[in-house]
Each structure stands twice: as structure tokens, then as C-alpha cells.
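Support request from a user on the community tier.

User writes: "When I paste my C-alpha cells into the form, the page sometimes reloads and wipes my input. The last time it worked, I copied everything first. Here is what I submitted, just in case something in the input itself triggers the reload:"
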């Protein structure tokens, strides 16, 4: 389902004009850590379309740091707590986790994520509006 959504949005991306960008100095910088290339591209597209700046990689993030980190946990990761701890040590910014491990409506997922120092979680699959809501939640808006 997410792959179909990705293909639709990439097709739209090619046909729609891009939104005017704000000054990068005033935009929130978002670092996206996602191993799946297609999902990463979709996240980048949605985030940039909303007016945020996407940081290229962790090296770039070191020069001032991101305002938010969006990280995919992946479904095969068996050491979720260790992965989250490593992300928390590497980044002082709020952390938004994206994973199929989280389920909609399960308070336990949110409670566990917050206990580990994560500001918000987003279960997959999700749409653009849900991503924007999760970003606002992670940033305390």
C-alpha cells in the first residue's frame, strides 16, 4: 500500500509545480534516517512540500544539528531499544519514529516510545496529513 502511495506521489511530483521555498535559515531542519530509498524519497517530498528543509546526511546534521529527526525503525530490527538509544545519543533534537511495529490506537506504543525518549511515533502505512500531524506533535506544536 505504501509503495502504491509512493508511486502516485512521485508521479504527481513530476507534474506539479514546486512550492516557493522559504529562507533555509528560518526553516526547520529535518534529518530523515530511512534505509528504504523509496520511502525516504516520499518522506523527503512530503516534508519539503510542507516547507521544511531536509538535511542531506548526518555529516550535514553535525553542522548545527537538525530541529527534528525522523527515523524508520524497520520491521526486521530486533533491538529496538538499542536503536532508539543510539539515535538519542547521536541527536539532541526531538525524535519521530516511523515503524510498522507501532499500531494505531495502541497507547502502549506511545507510552513505550516516550519512555525511551521519543517525542512521537507514526505507525505505517500513513499519509501526508498524518506525517505532518506527527511532525507537529514531535515539535511540541
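"...and here is what came back when it finally went through:"
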Amino acid at each position: 500500500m505504501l509503495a502504491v502511495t509512493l508511486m502516485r506521489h512521485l508521479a504527481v511530483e513530476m507534474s506539479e509545480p514546486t512550492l516557493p521555498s522559504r529562507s533555509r535559515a528560518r526553516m526547520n531542519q529535518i534529518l530523515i534516517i530511512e534505509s528504504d530509498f523509496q520511502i525516504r524519497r516520499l518522506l523527503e517530498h512530503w516534508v519539503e512540500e510542507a516547507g521544511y528543509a531536509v538535511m542531506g546526511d548526518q555529516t550535514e546534521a553535525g553542522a548545527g544539528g537538525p530541529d527534528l529527526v525522523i527515523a524508520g525503525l524497520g520491521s526486521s530490527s530486533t533491538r529496538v531499544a538499542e536503536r532508539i538509544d543510539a539515535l538519542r545519543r547521536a541527536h539532541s533534537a526531538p525524535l519521530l519514529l516511523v515503524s510498522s511495529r507501532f499500531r494505531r490506537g495502541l497507547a502502549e506504543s506511545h507510552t513505550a516510545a516516550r519512555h525511551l525518549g521519543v517525542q512521537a511515533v507514526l505507525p505505517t502505512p500513513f499519509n501526508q496529513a498524518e506525517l505532518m500531524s506527527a511532525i507537529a506533535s514531535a515539535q511540541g506544536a
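Agent notes: The reload is a front-end session timeout and is unrelated to the input. Residues 2-17+27-138 form a domain with the Rossmann fold fold (CATH 3.40.50.2300). Residues 10-26 have pLDDT under 50 and may be disordered. Escalated to web team.
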